[in-house]
Specification:
Elements (H helix, E strand, L loop, with lengths): L2 H5 L4 H9 L6 E12 L1 H38 L3 E5 L3 E7 L7 H18 L3 E3 L5 E3 L1 E16 L7 E5 L1 H12 L5 E4 H7 L7 E4 L5 E4 L22 H4 L5 H8 L8 E13 L9 H18 L3 E6 L5 E7 L8 H12 L10 E19 L2 E7 L1 H12 L5 E4 H5 L5 E5 L14 E7 L20 H15 L4 E6 L6 H14 L3 E6 L10 H10 L8 H15 L11 H4 L7 H4 L3 H22 L2 E6 L6 H13 L5 E7 L18 E5 L5 H15 L7 H11 L3 H13 L7 H5 L5 H11 L4 H13 L2 E3 H7 L6 H13 L3 E5 L5 E4 L2 H9 L3 H18 L8 H9 L4 H17 L3 H12 L3
Parallel strand pairs: 6-8, 14-16, 19-22, 19-23, 20-21, 21-22
Antiparallel strand pairs: 1-3, 1-6, 2-3, 4-5, 6-7, 8-10, 9-10, 11-13, 11-14, 12-13, 14-15, 16-18, 17-18, 24-26, 25-26
Helix pairs in contact: 3-4, 9-10, 13-14, 21-22, 21-23, 22-23, 25-29, 26-28, 26-29, 27-28, 30-31, 31-32, 32-33
């Protein structure tokens, strides 16, 4: 990582100011330029159609970067700064320099004309399949006073913001401009000394006047920036301007791995209510709002990426799933959007909040030029989120179908009439997000699974024995553990049905991955059901219900009712007793109160308490699970906890599992026969038109490796898209469904940056890989001791397994799908480069004995961009196959070789 690589994420004038130890003024005067490139939508569609969505998104990014490189060079050449990016548009600032009146206007206009000349070389692009796509640009220039702010939480990311009516005039000019034109506002034309009488004027309904400018009478010489004094600019000064995961990746020397292809959600939020020109406190107000929004988005581990300011409406956009993914990103973004919809009272000046959300497979990473970059997500679904935001009314959240699918059960939705939006010829199916449904208190909805449970008979027998003991007054704990997708929740529902059938009352709660510090979150729904609270009732009414429940259990307990305010999320004023308790005594008294209530309820009827996703328990919920677990040994209570094997140092299995009356069930993969049975049941349930061919079923079972969730999601994916693979090869070539991809990616994203890079490099070598090849192929991974430590972590997380111990030290991706996701997340360019590195390493390391490696060399070089090596090793591998009478392999090699001759 170099200071220069970090500085590219800031405007160049901001870098100079930081290097010189000075602040940029809050109020300043100059010219603003907006350059908007058009034609990327048809280019995007053509590339996706010809190369597929992943390669298409990457090629689009490459083309965009080539254009931005040329445009940014002109901006910097005329002493301008690129303030911000908005997909295929940039906003630039040219400050008026002392002693040079109107020079900023002249530099900005000269830059705009130079940018149009540069753009002409990109006017016609030929796609790989020969489709001609036209690109063009509109440029608008306005001048006057602006506000310049530093916005945002330094612990998250600081943002350089330009604001004021001058920017509104600039945008008005862009709306009036046509492709290939440079439009200037009337004050810019006056500053240039051009007679307005002969100008080609454009006017809008609000009185903005812009003139088309095709040339400058007097040439303006470029005035490039002086070199930045790098010796006075430390990388630590720039840290706060980058998102922490991006800074960490750059710091680890893995900048080339910032770009990825992954499912992600785009979030657009528009707002108004700040007078940037006339309110001296505008900067403080904007900063307070953005910090609050960053906090909300960050609470759910999303990222606020970019901010665009205008007096008539500003917006920010963010992403969930990039740069970090979670399997429940759909729930996270919906929760965040509901909070963002209504700013708190202290931000009451914010008005007209409108939100759009979309989801799809997107290209994430840095884009721009080597001198000016931004981190963002690119793809058609990003544009759709912006269109949905524009279509929404104030206070509304519009969501596309794919984003809604992942959160359909946990939230309330209203389908919208089909929407016609810019960039789409067909109406868009969208939904209005209304609110959260609230967590289930009792799991009695086994029918949601639709299928009978396959296997798990031994596990059910163990649960039934524990249940018998609990009903008889000997409290028991059952802990169900297993990796994602093995069916923990499915087994829990089956057990709850069994318990209800035997007369037990069941209550359930679940921990949330984003709620590890949300006190008693996992117990809230359990206690609401235990005390018979109506979650839809007003808070005052719920407090009354709670008092009645406590009085029915034991009137003496009512005086301790305020202690239940925290776990039930109710505002209950303290009384004389509870007011006297310090925090430690409050906690102890609350735990004793709940144990007493559970004892009383269990005497009337045996109880079953279920806590799912217990690996995410917040500390107070975890303590309460343990306290209750210890207390129930002589009660008619069965506690069931479900959790994944801890993968990170800060996660631990529930302490309750160490109790003598706890039985631990370790779920394993389904057997081959059970997996095949599940495939048959699922096909019948889906009403698939015809049975899948036997080899396709075998391949599907092998690909899922006994994971029932993987099996069902693969079949859902085939069914929803009307796909019936005719053979195993066709199945292998299909993309993974988003639900599976995101689940696996969320596990990979729990690794450190160096560990993620190690995993990605390993994925290029193959499903099986030698440790020594990693540091030989990509030395920047670090010394062998560091790489081995990374491999140990990945093995501990069961992403990889040790296949052969030292001295060979060979590892294996535990799951085929994990290998696929790690590999497919790499952009084609990075992937091809790494394949070339693998080939070069094999050539160098085994130079005297290449014979056994010819097939491997042909494979890696054929996936690289080194055509000379591709030809050499396809030929040599073909000759070797022919000599061994492996005619089919020889023909395959020769056919691929013919395409390169």
């Amino acid at each position: 990582m170099t200071t220069q690589s970090l500085a590219a994420y800031l405007p160049i004038d901001r870098c100079h100011a930081l290097a010189d130890g000075r602040l940029l003024p809050d109020r300043t005067v100059g010219a603003v330029l907006f350059a908007d490139i058009s034609g990327f939508t048809p280019l995007t569609n053509s590339l996706a159609r010809e190369l597929g969505p992943q390669r298409g998104a990457e090629e689009l990014s490459r083309q965009l970067n080539a254009i931005y490189t040329a445009l940014v060079a002109q901006v910097h050449g005329y002493h301008g700064s690129v303030i911000g990016f908005a997909g295929d548009a940039i906003t630039c600032w040219f400050e008026e320099l002392p002693g040079s009146p109107h020079a900023a206007c002249r530099r900005a206009v000269a830059c705009g004309l130079a940018m149009q000349r540069e753009m002409a070389s990109f006017g016609s692009l030929l796609t790989p399949a020969g489709t001609m796509v036209s690109l063009a640009m509109k440029v608008s220039v306005a001048s006057g006073p602006v506000r310049r702010f530093v916005i945002g939480d330094p612990q998250i990311q600081q943002i350089d913001a330009l604001a004021g009516r001058t920017l509104d005039r600039m945008i008005a000019g862009e709306h009036l401009a046509q492709k290939g034109e440079v439009l200037v506002s009337h004050e810019v034309l006056g500053a240039l000394g051009i007679d307005p009488e002969g100008a080609d004027w454009r006017d809008d309904q609000e009185g903005h006047r812009f003139a088309v400018l095709r040339e400058l009478g007097d040439p303006v010489e470029p005035t490039p920036w002086e070199p930045i004094r790098w010796e006075t600019l430390a990388g630590e000064q720039l840290r706060s301007w980058l998102l922490p995961p991006i800074y960490a990746r750059l710091e680890a020397g893995q900048g080339q791995f910032i770009a990825e292809l992954r499912p992600a959600f785009a979030l657009f939020v528009s707002f108004s209510g700040i007078d940037y020109d006339n309110d001296d406190a505008a900067g403080e107000k904007l900063d307070a709002y953005v910090r609050w929004a960053q906090g909300i988005v960050g609470r759910y581990e999303g990222s606020l990426l970019q901010l665009t300011i205008g007096d008539k409406g500003s917006y920010f956009y963010g992403a969930f799933g990039a740069p970090l993914a979670h399997e429940d990103d759909a729930d996270r973004i919906a929760e965040a959007a509901l909070l963002l919809r209504t700013p708190p009272a202290e931000l009451g000046f914010i008005a007209d909040v409108k939100i759009g959300i979309s989801q799809g497979r997107l290209r994430t990473g840095a884009y721009g030029s080597v001198d000016r970059l931004t981190y963002g997500v690119l793809g058609e679904e990003v544009n759709m989120a912006a269109r949905l935001m524009q279509a929404a009314a104030p206070g509304e959240i519009y969501v596309n179908e794919s984003a809604r699918q992942g959160a359909v059960a946990a939230f309330l939705w209203e389908q919208l009439p089909p929407l016609m939006v810019k960039g789409r010829s067909e109406p868009l199916s969208a939904y209005r997000l209304l609110g959260a449904r609230g967590r289930q208190q009792v799991h009695v909805q086994a029918a949601i699974y639709g299928l009978p449970m396959v296997g798990r008979q031994a596990e059910l027998a163990l649960v039934e024995a524990s249940m018998t003991d609990a009903i008889g007054g000997q409290g028991r704990v059952v802990a169900i553990t297993g990796e994602a997708g093995l069916g923990k929740s499915r087994l829990v529902v089956e057990c709850i049905q069994m318990g209800i059938g035997r007369g037990m009352t069941a209550y359930s709660g679940e921990a949330q991955s984003y709620g590890t510090n949300d006190s008693y979150l996992a117990w809230e729904s359990i206690l609401q059901a235990l005390f018979g609270l109506d979650r839809s009732a007003p808070a005052e009414e719920q407090v009354g219900q709670l008092e009645a429940a406590l009085r029915g259990i034991d009137p003496d307990l009512v005086q301790r009712m305020p202690l239940l305010g925290l776990p039930l999320n109710l505002a209950i004023p303290d009384n004389e007793l509870t007011r006297s308790l310090d925090s430690r005594l409050r906690k102890i008294s609350l735990e004793a109160l709940l144990v007493a209530c559970l004892r009383a309820r269990s005497q009337a009827n045996p109880l079953m308490i279920v806590v799912e996703d217990s690996h995410w328990l917040d500390p107070l919920s975890h303590d309460l699970v343990e306290i209750v677990g210890r207390a129930i040994f002589d009660m008619s209570v069965l506690i069931m906890v479900a959790y994944r094997p801890p993968e990170l140092d800060y996660l631990r299995p529930p302490r309750i599992t160490s109790l003598p009356h706890c039985a631990v069930i370790q779920l394993s993969e389904l057997s081959q026969a059970e997996a095949a049975e599940l495939v048959d049941l699922k096909q019948v349930h889906l009403g698939m038109a015809s049975d899948l061919p036997e080899d396709v079923v075998d391949q599907l079972v092998a690909r899922a490796q006994g994971n029932p969730f993987f099996i069902e999601e693969l079949l859902n994916y085939l069914h929803n898209r009307g796909l019936i693979p005719r053979n195993a090869r066709e199945l292998e070539q299909l993309d993974l469904p988003t639900s599976l991809y995101s689940l696996i990616l969320s596990r990979i994203d729990q690794l450190s940056e160096s560990q993620k890079t190690t995993l990605k490099v390993a994925s290029v070598i193959g499903r099986s890989f030698r440790a020594a090849w990693l540091w030989g192929i990509h030395p920047s991974l670090g010394l062998p001791t560091k790489v081995r430590a990374d491999l140990d972590t990945m093995s501990r997380m069961e992403l990889t397994l040790i296949d052969q111990p030292d001295p060979e030290s060979t590892y294996l991706f535990k799951h085929i799908l994990t290998h696929g996701v790690a590999y497919e997340s790499l952009p084609f360019e990075t992937r091809a480069w790494l394949h070339g590195q693998v080939g070069a390493f094999i050539e160098q390391t085994y130079a005297s004995t290449l014979g056994p490696f010819l097939d491997l060399l042909a494979f890696h070089y054929d996936h690289s961009t080194d055509d000379e090596k591709r030809r050499e090793y396809l030929r040599r591998a073909g000759e070797a196959a022919q000599a061994a009478y492996a005619n089919a392999a020889a023909i395959d090699y020769y056919q691929r070789l013919l395409g390169l001759l």
